[in-house]
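Students often ask why inverse folding is considered easier than folding. One informal answer: many sequences map to the same fold, so there is more than one right answer. In these notes we will look at a single instance of the problem. The structure comes first.
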C-alpha cells in the first residue's frame, strides 16, 4: 500500500533535517580543517621560516623595493608587513586580508592604521585603489586560496605602476591536490596551477616574468614586472 501524504511530509522533513545535519557537519569539519592551516601559518616557527627562507628567496630573486609604496595581498596576521619593511626597505605598506579575524591580529601588531601602514579587510579581486598605485605587490601564498586566481592577477597588474614588481610565493597544484593535504587542509581543488601554468598566466595578464624557482614541484617563487609601455 502507498504511503499517506502525511507520511511523505514526515519523511521529507526527516530527510531535510538529515541534510541540514550533514551540511552542518561538513561545514564544521571544513572550518576545523581550515583551522589546521591557520595554526600552521600563524606560529613563531612559520614566521622564522618566512623570515629566513621565504623572504630571502624573493629578495635574492627580485632585489629590494627601497622607499617603495608596497601592497601585501592576503597579509594574514601581519608578519609579512614587518619583513617587507625590514628586508625589502619599503617606505609604506598597505595590506589586506579576506578574513576579518586575522586583520584584527595584524592591527594589534601595527596599531591604528597610522603612519606607514594601512590595513583593511578586502578581496584581492577588488583592490580599492586607482590604477598604477603601487611600486610593488607581495603575495605570500594567497592565490592558491582564490577560486578565480587569474582575475586576481589582472587586478594585481592593474594596481602596479608601469615598471612595478610583483613578488610572488605560491603553493603549487601537486601540494594542494595531494591526497593527504587535500583532506587535512581546505583549499579549492579545481583549476589550481603548477610552476609553468602560473608563469604562463602571469604572461597572459601582461607581466614580464623575470625569474621563477620551484621546490619539489610543491612551492613556487615568481618575480614578474609590469612593463613600461
Ligand atoms: C596561507 S594564508 C597566508 C597568510 C600570509 N600571507 C602569510 O604568509 O602568513 C592565506 C591567506 O589568504 C587570505 N585570502 C584567501 N582568499 C583571499 C582573497 N580572495 N583576498 C584576500 N585574501 C584572501 C586568507 O584569509 C589567508 O589569511
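Output (designed amino acids):
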Amino acid at each position: 500500500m502507498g504511503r499517506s501524504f502525511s507520511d511523505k511530509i514526515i519523511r521529507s522533513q526527516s530527510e531535510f533535517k538529515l541534510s541540514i545535519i550533514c551540511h552542518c557537519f561538513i561545514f564544521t569539519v571544513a572550518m576545523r580543517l581550515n583551522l589546521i592551516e591557520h595554526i600552521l601559518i600563524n606560529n613563531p616557527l612559520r614566521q622564522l621560516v618566512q623570515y629566513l627562507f621565504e623572504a630571502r628567496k624573493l629578495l635574492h630573486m627580485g632585489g629590494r623595493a627601497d622607499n617603495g609604496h608596497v601592497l601585501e595581498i592576503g597579509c594574514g596576521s601581519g608578519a609579512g608587513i614587518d619583513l617587507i619593511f625590514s628586508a625589502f626597505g619599503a617606505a609604506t605598506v598597505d595590506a589586506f586580508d579576506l578574513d576579518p579575524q586575522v586583520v584584527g591580529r595584524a592591527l594589534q601588531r601595527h596599531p591604528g592604521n597610522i603612519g606607514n601602514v594601512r590595513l583593511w579587510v578586502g578581496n584581492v579581486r577588488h583592490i580599492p585603489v586607482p590604477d598604477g598605485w603601487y611600486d610593488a605587490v607581495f603575495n605570500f601564498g594567497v592565490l592558491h586560496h582564490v577560486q578565480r586566481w587569474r582575475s586576481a592577477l589582472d587586478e594585481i597588474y592593474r594596481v602596479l605602476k608601469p615598471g612595478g614588481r610583483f613578488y610572488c610565493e605560491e603553493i603549487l597544484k601537486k601540494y594542494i591536490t595531494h591526497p593527504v593535504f587535500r583532506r587535512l587542509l581546505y583549499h579549492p581543488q579545481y583549476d589550481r596551477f603548477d610552476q609553468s601554468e602560473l608563469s604562463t598566466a602571469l604572461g597572459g595578464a601582461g607581466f614580464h616574468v623575470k625569474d621563477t624557482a620551484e621546490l619539489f614541484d610543491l612551492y613556487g617563487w615568481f618575480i614578474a614586472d609590469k612593463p613600461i609601455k
